[in-house]
Amino acid sequence: MRNAHSLERRVGIEHYVSDAEGTGGRLRDAPEDFRVREVEAMDAVDVDEDPGDYPSLLLRVTLREWDTNDFARRLSDALGISRERVSWAGTKDKYAVTTQLFSVRDASPDEIPAINNADIEVLGRIGRDLGFGDLAGNDFDVRVRDADASANAATVTAQLQAFLTDEDAVDGAATEGETAAVAVPNYFGHQRFGSRRPVTHEVGLHVVRGEWREAVLSYVGNPASAEPDGTQAARRFVDEQAASDDPDWHAALETMPNRLRYERSMLHRLAEDGDESAEDWRHALEAVPRNLQRLFVNAAQSYVFNRILSERLDRGLPLTRPIEGDVVCFADRDVPDRLYRADPDRTQVATGRRVEVMSRHCERGRAFVTAPLVGTETELAEGEAGEIERAVLNELDLEPADFDLPGEFDSTGTRRAVLLRTDVETTVDSDADTYELSFSLPSGSYATALLREYLKTTPQDL
């Protein structure tokens, strides 16, 4: 294994599992260099069915250089409806060509507008709004340009094949243009925590500990060197006010750039409603949208997961098969085979003879070793795997009961596969400094978990 990039270690990612030198290179030189198509998990009825029973139109939209939230806002504005009536199954990168599903409640097909850089197809009607998870996964076609050593891509692929089979090397590794079965640690990608300023998990950790003041200040203050100078200055001013005996939140609000609307919303509540109690600080944090409130806690859970996964690698414990005491979940049987998706609702503790049986299931892609996304209903593993989970929680001063929180911050938790399997095809262009990767991933996993092994570059370049 190789040590991860220093910025990745800030979010709990400690290792690359391939030893080969990275290819370097750039992603997204053009939107067409990064293509993503959702593998759909939602069937629609005919568009002429009764809107009373099927109130939402289901759309398949191919977007070029559109942020998902921005497109939803543009679509709702063009329809003259509330943004709350537009939903989607997954958020995608802006600098890409993405094909994804949207639903529009209480609209007719002839009302759907034409929008620049968006190809909109009406698939039919569904009985409810789309929600996160209403997709099975995503198919990716990614081009890497200006690679320092594109030939290294084949070496990385061979090492990821070996990682899947838990061997030192692979005989007859896939050659260029062939499909290879590979695996990587199922890390939460850097973008989960903030690509420029990875603090989302820090806010969440403060929330789970009941440190509402620290949570707000971690988000509103706490400048990062990657931010524009004006933004850094505004955040430093917030930190100065927080250290003052008589903070001036009105002045801090005036200093904060208008584009940072969430920070401004929190400062507005502090300025108007005060900062005398923990409830005041929680009220300020709740000024942001509910999905962001949930994201704070989700990011904290993701950070804990990454730490547990890294510690497991540190100890030389396998990700491809269980050890005594591991919690194993079975594969989701309702998605295409190429997605290798775990079903966290079907778990079993690997003990005694079950270890060998579950190992065979894992080898065939029918089951997965898991680690917790900790919440109030989390049952930790046994044996050494459980020791790791408890040690990480103790170091962070957390326990499952801490996630019993008010409002959107509450979480019951779940389990997540520690291994990300896929079949990858690698093609090196004739100019030798560009190569392409084609692969599919289940929903909830990050393409960067795989791409980082190939490029071995800074997270911002992924």
Automatic annotation (TrEMBL):
Q: Which GO terms describe its molecular function?
A: RNA binding; tRNA pseudouridine(13) synthase activity
Q: Name one Pfam family in it.
A: TruD
Tell me which InterPro entries the record gives: PsdUridine_synth_cat_dom_sf, PsdUridine_synth_TruD, PsdUridine_synth_TruD_CS, PsdUridine_synth_TruD_insert, TruD_catalytic
Q: Which GO terms describe its biological process?
A: tRNA pseudouridine synthesis
Annotated signal sequence is none
| Reaction(s) catalysed by this chain's protein | uridine(13) in tRNA = pseudouridine(13) in tRNA
Determine if Isomerase is one of this entry's keywords: yes
tRNA processing listed as a keyword: yes
Q: Where is the active site?
A: D93
| Enzyme nomenclature, EC number | 5.4.99.27
Q: Which residues form the TRUD domain?
A: 183-420
Keywords assigned = Isomerase, tRNA processing
Similarity comment: Belongs to the pseudouridine synthase TruD family.
**Known role:** Could be responsible for synthesis of pseudouridine from uracil-13 in transfer RNAs.
Would you tell me the protein name for this molecule?
Probable tRNA pseudouridine synthase D
Q: What is the lineage of its organism?
A: Archaea, Methanobacteriati, Methanobacteriota, Stenosarchaea group, Halobacteria
